[in-house]
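Why this split exists: single-chain examples teach little about how molecules sit against one another. For that reason, every record in the complexes split bundles all components of an assembly together and asks for one structure covering all of them. Below is a record exactly as it appears in the raw files.
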Amino acid sequence: TQLLEQSPQFLSIQEGENLTVYCNSSSVFSSLQWYRQEPGEGPVLLVTVVTGGEVKKLKRLTFQFGDARKDSSLHITAAQPGDTGLYLCAGDAGGTSYGKLTFGQGTILTVHP
Amino acid sequence: DSGVTQTPKHLITATGQRVTLRCSPRSGDLSVYWYQQSLDQGLQFLIQYYNGEERAKGNILERFSAQQFPDLHSELNLSSLELGDSALYFCASSVWDRSFSGNTIYFGEGSWLTVV
């Protein structure tokens, strides 16, 4: 069974601070996706990383996929209250399992003004 | 708006009852997935259908079943409900993304089931 360990589970910071969320596994994934979920809504895809060592930037968000495609990180620069939400990483094993995602437990981020 | 539509949004029912959750995928998407989200288990994959056929199964209980119809909408049937079945149930559909040879998955807003 593939597992994704996400940390930290909770993060409470002040506006303007930087933060990093980690997603680690002992398994290799064909791709890894990061989602953001707000209360009462479904997860919304932020980014998909595919290649080992890949770095993708989305405004103040930087996503990195580990060289071995087993881990990933999400770094937010100068966090804003609008970044508050649940952040989820999800791995796709690929092959016959395409689309069957294994999710981390999530990181609840609260950014205080 | 992801384009994936789920009904009902909220449902309260008693233990032992049966409910049906409905999902319409994004236009043109052939794959439908069902996920369960609870506080203790997080988001868990239940089952996937592709063009009417079951493609993959996750930790779906025997009391639960699903199907995908010719018009590609899907239903998740939950029977003999227990208190522990209270959760958010998400439907998702996917499109093949050639840029990375994988599926991009879009989630609906979920159906919140409360069993009392």
